[in-house]
Amino acid sequence: MAARRRTSFKLGVSGLGERQEIASGLFINTFYRGCTPGFVVTDEGLILIDTPLIPKQAKDWREQIESAAPGLPILYVFNTDHHRGHALGNQYFLPATVIAHERAYKEMSGYTENFKERVYNSFKREPEIQEQLTEIEIILPDVTFTDCARLQYGGREIQLIYAGGHTPATSIAWLPEEKIAFVGDILWVDQHPYMAQADSLEWIDALRKIRSLGAERLVPGHGPVCGPDDTLKVEEYILFKRQRVRDYYREGKTKNEAKSGLVGEMLELFPVPLERKAKIESQIKSGINRVYREIQREEELSGAVPRNGALQPPAVDVEQAHEPQAEANMIPIPVAVEANQ
């Protein structure tokens, strides 16, 4: 089957798009909703990174995979995260073995019928998508890892490395020979990152960890293939949010006051399509909620005390005290994967 033709559609909404070969036997598709899935061709079979959220797109992706590598089995599906945009399409790639971080298994184990209903209802303004989501099946990871794991098949090596930051389960796939890393939602290119479940300092460390890999190209969770320097924009975004939230907190402002005052500032940092403005504003607010709680804990631990309705800053600023880990400690040595019992 030939590669799919590109049709007219809104980017990442309902279109299919064409697979893109970014290196020999490495394919991605940047046109799907929720993430940028990829797959690696080895002599023994295929290894997938993430799966599309929308059933029509997931089925199309399987067709494109089988067209690119006819006759080869799908060995593994690696989910870089537990979020629906990365893992809800797993059901369309069975009987592959699903692998993810152990925290992803824990999170996905809690996906009840109520979760499925929320996913369905989230597309109430897009009935053509909603009608596809009536038979959601949650496919949990069959195999989990804690810090890292190594897959070696058909002359290919793929290292699965825990990174955290975006969520407690976020992990990356690193191909050292090809110098390409699939970094999931740690990296959003020219887009506001989703931070509702984030640890912002851990996220900064994850970005620095990615830059220490020696990668030449990165496949982000959202956006086009890029280089390691593109992680700097996300780091600047997070540092800016942390500092401005800290400013509000030290002025004695509440979390709601911080959200009201900062959304406009944050909106200016990345492009915002008019049709997505309300959604992105909500996304920014959820991130401010998360960071405000972090800053509150940090300030309390630092010994800052109220004065005239505001807070005195601590003697040592947390931002200055947070230094990147030594490079030698950045990338753990891959170990054997651990199967769930």
Describe this structure in words.
- With 341 residues, this protein is α/β, with parallel strands linked by helices.
- It folds into two domains: 20-235, Ribonuclease Z/Hydroxyacylglutathione hydrolase-like (Metallo-beta-lactamase, Chain A, 4-Layer Sandwich), CATH 3.60.15; 237-320.
- It is built from ten helices and 15 strands.
- The chain has helices at 55-68, 84-87, 102-109, 113-121, 127-130, 200-211, 231-250, 255-267, 277-302, 318-321, and strands at residues 20-23, 26-28, 38-41, 46-49, 74-78, 97-101, 143-145, 148-153, 156-162, 171-175, 180-188, 217-222, 306-307, 310-311, 338-339.
- Strands 1-2-3-4-5-6-7-15 form an eight-stranded mixed β-sheet.
- A hairpin with a 4-residue loop joins strand 10 (171-175) and strand 11 (180-188).
- Helix 7 packs across helix 9 and helix 8 (255-267) packs across helix 9 (277-302).
- The longest helix is centred in the C-terminal third of the chain and has 26 residues, at 277-302.
- The chain is globular, with a radius of gyration of 21 Å.
